[in-house]
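Quick one:
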Amino acid sequence: MVGLALTGALWRVDRITTRRVVDLSGFSATVQRRLGIGYSSDDFAAGVRGRSVFGHIGFPHTIRTFARRLGVRLDHIEETVEPILAEGAITSTVVEVAAGESAGMLQRTIGYVDSKPWFSAEFLGHVEPAGAGLTPQDSYEIDGLPDIRAAVTPGFDPQWTTAAALADLLPLLIAAPDGLISVTDLPIPTPWR
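Output:
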């Protein structure tokens, strides 16, 4: 929702790039395994092919939502997921990671318009981001008229911000008209008291 709100300050949107750096240590073992934590390179690749490892599932939906709201016709969406291998063992998280196993993942999702990248989303998740030289952050680069650059530091905490967004959307959902709507059809939520 932040990225979409930022586009409201532009006369024209030509290209969007977003990057999330997320601390994955707070997720359950089930979610960490789905995000690709604790695999050898070969097992990670096999998991991606078999769809048991698939990273952040929301980017294709986000790209389609932006395209719909901005009146852009997408050609197609491409996605890659690669492991980030641990240099040493990590035992401080629910899924223990041996040296050489995946302690994180890098996912790139690109929506194409007229055969050119229009929306590029990168998700960099790690169970020990500080140890990997990473700082949680959500950043947005929107090229258009004018260009906008924005960053949220530290990034949106996946557990706290998801729970807050769901709770804060409740009064808006109750007041919404009947029928199928998207979260982007609702006003931007504010804390519900």
